[in-house]
Amino acid sequence: MLGLGKGDRVLDETLERAIAYLLNSCFKDFFLEITVANQPNAVEWTPEAEAKLKEIPFFVRPAARKKIEKFAQEAGQKLITVEVYQQAKQQFGQ
Fold first, then answer.
1. In angstroms, rounded to a whole number, what is the distance separating the alpha carbons of residues 88 and 77?
2. Is the pLDDT of residue 46 over 90?
3. Does residue 2 contact residue 11 with C-beta atoms inside 8 Å?
4. For all residues of the chain together, what is the average pLDDT?
5. Residues with Cβ < 8 Å from 77, sequence gap 6 or more?
6. What values do phi and psi take at 12, rounded to 5?
């Protein structure tokens, strides 16, 4: 990220996590609205499934959301419930 050299990998990762945290906490709703609006085949989440998703660490949550949504779309699901969440989690070996 900063290109400070091989020994600074930990610093780069720490900064990336800090930036991800700030973006997630400050702009989460804004970016989520843009993402959903730009996805014509977007699936919806129940509040219970969203709560389960929030149990995942913030820095991997966007990737997990994407995988679960892809799983749901491939299964023909338009709504992600706790059951769909658990099925996806099981398929990914979590």
1. 12
2. yes
3. yes
4. 79
5. 43, 84
6. -60, -45
Q: N- to C-terminal Cα distance for the chain?
A: 29
Residue 11 near residue 4, CB atoms below 8 Å = yes
What are the respective helix, strand and coil percentages of the chain, to the nearest 5?
65, 5, 30
User: Can you read off the two tokens belonging to residue 67?
Assistant: 């995988």
Torsion angle in degrees (nearest 10) through CA of 78, 82, 83, 85: 70
Contact assessment for residue 45 and residue 78, using Cβ atoms and an 8 Å cutoff: no
Q: What percent of the chain has pLDDT over 70?
A: 64
d(CA 1, CA 15): 9
